[in-house]
Amino acid sequence: MASYALHTPLTTPLAYTALFGTGALVMRGAGCTINDMWDKNLDKSVARTKERPLARGDITRRQALAFLAGQLSVGLGVLLQLNWYSILLGATSLSVVIIYPLMKRITYWPQAVLGIAFNWGALLGWSAVAGSTDWAVCLPLYAGGIAWTLVYDSIYAHQDKRDDVGVGIRSTALLFGHKTRPILGLLSGTSMTLVGYSGLLNGQGLPFFVGVGIAAMQLARIVYRTNFESRESCWKGFVDCGWPGFTIWMGALADYVYAVPLLSSTATS
């Protein structure tokens, strides 16, 4: 979206997609490592997590810490490829990544904290391309991403709600209870509305909004069809929630590929 707004050459979004893809993979892994270190003793008592390397005793906490240091070093290496504005903005997200695993012990909204961490790229991606963040465009996109995270991670949390009650873990799945479907429907609508509003502010074209529209239908279908009492159905719903994000991305890509050369040639003329 930043490349679309600034009419950058195709090499710009390609390069940053590769860079951010690497950073996202590494930092998500770091978040998982931190989560497993926080929950080592808890994981031993839950069937679904007792086979994790730390809980099973395959690795020590010191080895996990060394692995985490390696992950964070790679993440820092990616971050240092960006401008200073983006470096500072990216560094501020680390605190959220670290505290997220603790949130499920003290609040029923750990999924919201996850959304705050996972969607930081909505702010950072723009600043990497432009040198600073266009908050008017990026904040609705960021908020829409947080609402989307609440949808898919609440579906995921429904798999574990019986275990969570036994070990004192909190989640939106327990908070929403039998009202989960209408609440997730509302969050889905909110998410797609905010993403669409962000595109409107950015002057996006028809392909972008077609992508958002299809993504909205995908989310509605997932929320309607998911059986929140079935682990298998919740897992499928969780995995399928990735497709709306892919659909929006493809719409944005099509919009960029179609519009940027046209805009560039018009400006030249």
UniProtKB/TrEMBL annotation:
EC number: 2.5.1.39
Keyword set, alphabetical order: Isoprene biosynthesis, Membrane, Mitochondrion, Mitochondrion inner membrane, Transferase, Transmembrane, Transmembrane helix, Ubiquinone biosynthesis
Gene3D superfamilies xref list: UbiA prenyltransferase
One Pfam family in the UniProt entry: UbiA
Compartment(s) where it occurs, according to its Swiss-Prot or TrEMBL record: Membrane; Mitochondrion inner membrane
Membrane-protein topology: Multi-pass membrane protein
Gene Ontology CC annotation, any one: mitochondrial inner membrane
CDD domains (UniProt xref): PT_UbiA_COQ2
Catalytic function, reaction form: an all-trans-polyprenyl diphosphate + 4-hydroxybenzoate = a 4-hydroxy-3-(all-trans-polyprenyl)benzoate + diphosphate
Gene Ontology MF term list: 4-hydroxybenzoate polyprenyltransferase activity
Transmembrane segments annotated in the record for this chain: 14-38, 59-78, 109-129, 135-152
BP GO annotations: isoprenoid biosynthetic process; ubiquinone biosynthetic process
InterPro entries assigned: HB_polyprenyltransferase-like, Prenyltransferase, UbiA_prenyltransferase, UbiA_prenylTrfase_CS, UbiA_sf
Keyword Transmembrane: yes
Pathway: Cofactor biosynthesis; ubiquinone biosynthesis
Cofactor: Mg(2+)
Family indicated by similarity: Belongs to the UbiA prenyltransferase family.
Function: Catalyzes the prenylation of para-hydroxybenzoate (PHB) with an all-trans polyprenyl group. Mediates the second step in the final reaction sequence of coenzyme Q (CoQ) biosynthesis, which is the condensation of the polyisoprenoid side chain with PHB, generating the first membrane-bound Q intermediate.
Name of this protein: 4-hydroxybenzoate polyprenyltransferase, mitochondrial
Organism this protein belongs to: Mycena chlorophos (Agaric fungus)
